[in-house]
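ok new one. same drill as before - structure tokens go in, u give me an amino acid for every spot. 188 of them this time. try not to just spam alanines like last time pls lmao
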């Protein structure tokens, strides 16, 4: 028998609102998450993923005990559930781990985790938005290391991806990073 949660998750896609013929991006994202939950019967790291995309990691970045706690929780969940993980779940794990490690100023380990996300790019089905966000995170690592000249092409690479969920949200982040670098975001 289907659980109440699964039953409710099936309804989410139909509850999306359209404004001027367009769906609200975050509602579309949530509907995709709900559909994945219905299909896979689980959502690994959904709470941390949502937190990341609403800038929650940036908000708690300076609170190292909180960031360390998030990283430890990611690791514990991963150890318990990695055997059933698909490429999307693996990429999400490495992506969130990289974001935590960047905020903990462990840049080498963060870059390794980002490279793992990028290796999985061709295998991603549901989480095609992770590679462009991974390039953005890699650019932030370069900026933190003072390698501003290396950051710009990475931001351009992130911006070159098209047609993925929350694309506009990433473009705003890229624009902000380029403004902080003192460069203009190309119009194309």
């Amino acid at each position: 028998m289907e659980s109440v949660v699964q039953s409710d998750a099936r309804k989410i896609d139909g509850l999306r609102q359209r404004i001027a013929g367009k769906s609200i991006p975050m509602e579309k994202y949530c509907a995709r998450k709900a559909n994945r939950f219905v299909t896979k019967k689980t959502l690994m790291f959904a709470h941390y993923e949502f937190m990341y995309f609403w800038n929650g990691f940036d908000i708690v970045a300076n609170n190292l005990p909180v960031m360390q706690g998030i990283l430890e929780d990611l690791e514990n969940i991963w150890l318990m559930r990695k055997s059933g993980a698909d490429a999307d779940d693996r990429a999400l794990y490495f992506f969130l781990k990289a974001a935590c490690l960047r905020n903990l100023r462990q840049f080498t380990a963060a870059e390794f985790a980002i490279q793992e996300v990028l290796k999985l790019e061709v295998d991603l089905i549901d989480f095609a938005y992770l590679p462009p966000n991974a390039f953005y995170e890699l650019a932030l690592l370069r900026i933190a290391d003072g390698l501003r000249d290396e950051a710009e092409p990475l931001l351009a690479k992130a911006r070159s991806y098209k047609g993925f969920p929350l694309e506009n949200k990433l473009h705003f982040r890229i624009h902000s990073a380029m403004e902080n670098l003192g460069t203009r975001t190309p119009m194309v």
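The CA atoms of residues 118 and 131 lie 6 Å apart. and btw The two ends are 51 Å apart (CA to CA).
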